[in-house]
Amino acid sequence: MPEKRGKLIVVSGPSGAGKSTVIQKLMERRSDLCFSVSATTRDPREGEVQGKDYFFVSHEAFDEMVERGELLEHATYVKNCYGTPRNYVEQRRAEGLHVLLDIEVQGAAQVRAKVSDAVTVFVIPPSLEVLRQRLHDRGTDSELVIQERLERARAEYVEAAFYDYIVVNDDADAAAKELDAIITSACCRFEDRKEYLKIH
Amino acid sequence: MPEKRGKLIVVSGPSGAGKSTVIQKLMERRSDLCFSVSATTRDPREGEVQGKDYFFVSHEAFDEMVERGELLEHATYVKNCYGTPRNYVEQRRAEGLHVLLDIEVQGAAQVRAKVSDAVTVFVIPPSLEVLRQRLHDRGTDSELVIQERLERARAEYVEAAFYDYIVVNDDADAAAKELDAIITSACCRFEDRKEYLKIH
User: A98, A196, B2, B41: which one has the fewest Cβ atoms less than 10 Å from its Cβ?
Assistant: First the structure.
């Protein structure tokens, strides 16, 4: 039997699309799927475990990882750097596990340039009007912040054209089922199965 | 909501791969999937219904369908002609139904040239050795016929490179689940969902 290498699944989508819930339900459906562990320069919080929650590294070490091309993507938030170690992802994939990256559109573009067989999925709400309503209903954001989030979603939607798949999160269970199917079908692609076609 | 057009699913595979069983199990899993109805010049058998089992037509009518480009693919077996009417497939797809074509590699090549968004799946046994064993075990073929079937399978395997997906039928339920996932994921492709990305 040909050996089975796991897939790299990149999931992005606007804030309020319900991506986290969908991913959680997806994780419950598949035992062969894991999250990537990010490298970060921020300090560990109580209870966080090195190598499990994050790879905690110094700014110098992080910069070296970037220079050596050891990160599939990286970004800076509030002065702290975050990145996806290529090595970690490759090891899990070699074990046959699919690795899920929940990252923003800029990070996804970096991954796409480095991992040609990455499977990319953009999760969206049924419409921007529904997104506006959801943000309004949860009551945590002012009208101004909601407007900013919608503006940002519109900007991200332009990047959606570079993703392989669009999952519309109307119902989280249905959306998780679609993501599940996307992973299963990705494993059936001709390129992944052609070893089975040896005729001798 | 954008309207939902069904997919055209083309399934091929060597004799003995267990394709029929897999397709039957797939049909049980999806109520939105139907078989195409072929046009044929052969006489109706007892109980066969015009427009349900086949579209029974004269040789002249069949030739006209070919000339007018009304068939997605056609072939001749034992002096009778068989073909897939484009109109029938298009109508079912417009209703939102996925249409399944169970055809040989030559027919699949014709469909691929005419339907750019056809989803093509090649179903194979785990290995040619397993295929040989299956053909041997069912005891209906002589050793010579088995050798001929294996030769034909080898020839068909060369054409598998033109299919989108390979489904390995080790277990019919697992294979049906993969075909199911292939259809679901095909509906999530960016091209099919981009209407949801309208920002106004």
Answer: B2
Structure tokens at A61: 């070490």
For residue range B91-135, list pLDDT tens digits in order.
999 999 999 999 999 999 999 999 999 999 999 999 999 999 988
Confidence at B198, pLDDT banded by 50, 70, 90: confident
**A184 contacts on B by Cβ (under 8 Å):** 177-178, 181-182, 185
Which pairing describes strands A71-77 and A80-85: parallel, antiparallel, or unpaired? antiparallel
- From residue B159, alpha-carbon distances to A200, B63, B102, B122, B165 in Å are 16, 27, 15, 9, 12
Inside any domain, residue A93: yes
Choose the weakest-confidence range: A74-78, A83-87, B27-31, B32-36.
Answer: A74-78
Put simply, the answer to whether A199 touches B163 (Cβ < 8 Å) is: no
Q: Bridge-partner residues for A100, per DSSP? A: A9, A35
Does any CB of chain A come closer than 8 Å to the CB of residue B130? no
CB hemisphere CA count around B123 (13 angstroms):
30
Give me the number of domains chain B comprises: 1
β-strand pairing of B33-35 with B98-102: parallel
pTM of the model: 0.93
Pairwise CA distance, residues A73 & A70, whole Å: 9
Answer whether residue A28 is part of any domain.
yes
Span B31-41, pLDDT tens digits: 999 999 999 99
Measured between its terminal Cα atoms, the distance across chain B in Å is: 14
Sign of the four-CA dihedral B90, B96, B97, B99: positive
The C-alpha atoms of residue B46 and residue A140 are separated, in whole angstroms, by: 69
CATH value at residue A66 = 3.40.50.300
Report if residue B116 sits inside a domain: yes
**8 Å CB contact of A168 and B199:** no
Q: Which domain holds residue B25?
A: 8-197
Residue B157 contacts A, CB cutoff 8 Å: yes
Please give the Cα distance from B59 to B124 (Å, whole number). Answer: 34
Question: Is A2 inside a domain boundary?
Answer: no
Locate tokens 């219904």: which residue? B49
Q: CA A22, CA A182: separation in Å to the nearest integer?
A: 13
